[in-house]
Amino acid sequence: MAATSCRSLHLYNISDGRGKVGTFGIFKSVYRLGEDVVGTLNLGEGTVACLQFSVSLQTEECVQPEYQRRRGAGGAPSVSHVTHARHQESCLHTTRTSFSLPIPLSSTPGFCTAIVSLKWRLHFEFVTSREPGLVLLPPMEQPEPVTWTGPEQVPVDTFSWDLPIKVLPTSPTLASYAAPGPSTSTITI
């Protein structure tokens, strides 16, 4: 398991056309089936307010045109995406958050042949405010009690980002825990 034990923090700056949204950190980019993909998102240093984000653990399967059942126009490879785990969070006024996405033991590790390839990725989607310096907090000092409501509409932009990761087969011992089959237990008193 030496291929997945190296842990050095990989940092990625996340920006849209108007400025920095935040920084994403992940400790490794190579995993085994059954492990968790753990990441952190630091939004406190951004200049663009992030209202919501989602991250999905996905596989991308690409089949070469000559091996497709239904041949598409233009002869482009057929690409399909499958989401295995997803985390979504509303994050206005959040400075730092984290997520953990489990890689199912029953999934297929990444591979590539002349006919088909299967790649893993983290697919991020961000919803950001178009208004610079957006603050959606009630006023702190009021002479009398008031009911505060947020704005009914906030102009937003959305963008996505894909981070490739590698997923390797798991150890046979760990795979045996997920395999259906008879099991026996004995308790001696």
Throw out a few tags for this protein.
189 residues; six-stranded mixed beta sheet; 10 strands; extended
Overall description:
The chain is mainly beta and 189 residues long. The protein has a single domain, classed as Immunoglobulin-like (Sandwich), CATH 2.60.40. The protein is built from one helix and ten strands. It has one helix at 172-178; strands at residues 10-16, 19-26, 30-32, 36-42, 50-63, 78-90, 96-102, 111-112, 116-129, 156-168. The strands form two sheets. Strands 3, 5, 6, 8, 9 and 10 form a six-stranded mixed sheet that branches. Strands 1-2-4-7 form a four-stranded antiparallel sheet, with no helix packed on it. Strand 8 and strand 9 (116-129) form a beta hairpin. The longest helix has 7 residues, at 172-178.
Structural class, by secondary structure, is mainly beta
What's the end-to-end separation, in Å?
38 Å
The assigned CATH architecture is Sandwich
Number of domains: 1
As a percent range, the share of strand residues is: over 45%
The quaternary structure here is single chain
Helix content: under 10%
Radius of gyration: 22 Å
Shape: extended
**Could you give a short account of the major beta sheet?**
6 strands, mixed
Q: What is the name of the CATH topology?
A: Immunoglobulin-like
Order of helices and strands, N to C?
EEEEEEEEEEH
Residue ranges: pLDDT <50 for 5 or more in a row? none
Number of helices: 1
Indicate the mean pLDDT. Answer: 86
Classified by CATH, the class is Mainly Beta
Task: Please report the total strand number as a whole number.
Answer: 10
